[in-house]
């Protein structure tokens, strides 16, 4: 049950966006980085469990920004939850669109084309960092379902796994209140930027999830996740062992199918190291992880395989847009793809760049900061 909080309340930062990504912890995810060419103007993490390699949050050098949260479906069908298209493609589509494609044009086309209905339920906020941002959901009918936020100073809004504007979720109400308080407190004491980032990461770690005596996994806690901004690890050893057996069976099946390849066997998966050049700073303690991308199985899509096992808040993100046009993007990874906890700070990645305004085209060649 992810949450995104967006605010225009800070006098020095016209836009602040913070986000928790809650996910099954074994789901393979590429670390925050500039994407490979020809999409090297996009900065964001990527979900590697589906071939679309979509993202839930990203920015471009020219100032486009988009964030997506899943919609909690009434149906328990895996097909209904996952959809034919990756939800992350909705974010990718906006970030990859030409610079002259406005948020209004993109979301209206998304709604009218019917493409969005092929994905699992989602809410998408997108636009330029100067604002405003459009919010659209594929669980709301027609163009009248488009809402606009961050168009004026002093706004703070939350977005989670329900329709935008649902005031019955405590995590949304708590998030909005705590973000307002965090910004007010930071401004009052003239806090440094690093101090503000730490304060916002602390907000994202607010854990008010009720604990059940019987423990249990995600299905047991699903109705309680709306209570807490942060989701601690949910699941027990039995669920973890079950996931590992399922994964090993998948790998064995894939290797057996590939045993007749001309190379004499199949790969268990590609290993991609993320060490691309870019404006990365303050990253001396970056966790050097290797993202293992499981190969597609002819019998079981990888996305199905990663819908079990232990679950919790996997990544935390803070995006600050300064009035000067400087954008700071901080991602904290809490667990690696083996669901092992990463010591706080060792999974941090930090990027800064100046948002291009003139002659940037699709965003190539941004100014290096730091």
Automatic annotation (TrEMBL):
Source species, domain of life: Eukaryota
Transmembrane spans: none
Any Gene Ontology CC annotation: Golgi apparatus
InterPro entries recorded: TANGO2
Pfam families associated with the record: TANGO2 (PF05742)
Chain spans, region Disordered: 250-277
Name recorded for this polypeptide: DUF833 domain-containing protein
């Amino acid at each position: 049950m992810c949450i995104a909080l967006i605010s225009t309340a800070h006098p020095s930062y016209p836009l602040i966006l913070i986000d928790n990504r809650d996910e099954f912890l074994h789901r393979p995810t590429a670390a925050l980085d500039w994407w490979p060419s020809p999409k090297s103007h996009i900065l964001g993490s990527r979900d590697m469990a589906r071939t679309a390699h979509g993202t839930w949050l990203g920015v471009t050098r020219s100032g486009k920004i988009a964030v997506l949260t899943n919609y909690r479906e009434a149906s328990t069908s895996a097909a209904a939850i996952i959809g034919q298209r990756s939800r992350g493609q909705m974010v990718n589509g906006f970030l990859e669109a030409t610079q002259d494609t406005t948020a209004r044009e993109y979301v209206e086309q998304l709604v009218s084309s019917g493409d969005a209905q092929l994905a699992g339920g989602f809410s998408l906020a997108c636009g330029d960092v100067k604002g405003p941002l459009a919010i659209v959901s594929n669980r709301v009918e027609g163009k009248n379902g488009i809402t606009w936020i961050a168009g004026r100073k002093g706004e703070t809004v939350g977005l989670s796994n329900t329709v935008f504007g649902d005031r019955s979720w405590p995590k949304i109400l708590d998030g909005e209140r705590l973000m307002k308080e965090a910004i007010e407190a930071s401004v009052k004491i003239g806090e440094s930027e690093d101090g503000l980032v730490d304060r916002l990461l602390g907000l994202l770690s607010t854990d008010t999830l009720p604990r059940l005596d019987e423990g249990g996994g995600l299905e047991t806690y699903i109705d309680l996740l709306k209570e807490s901004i942060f989701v601690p690890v949910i699941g027990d050893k039995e669920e973890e062992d079950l996931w590992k057996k399922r994964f090993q069976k998948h790998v064995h099946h894939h290797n057996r199918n590939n045993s007749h390849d001309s190379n004499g066997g199949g790969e268990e998966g590609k290993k991609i190291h993320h060490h691309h050049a870019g404006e990365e700073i303050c990253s001396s303690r970056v966790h050097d992880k290797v993202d293992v991308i499981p190969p597609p199985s002819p019998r079981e899509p990888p996305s199905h395989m990663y819908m079990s096992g232990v679950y919790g808040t996997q990544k935390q993100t803070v995006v600050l847009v300064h009035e000067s046009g400087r954008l700071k993007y901080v991602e904290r990874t809490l667990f690696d793809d083996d669901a092992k906890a990463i010591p706080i700070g060792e999974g941090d990645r930090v990027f800064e760049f100046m948002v291009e305004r003139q002659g940037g085209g699709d965003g190539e060649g941004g100014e290096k900061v730091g």
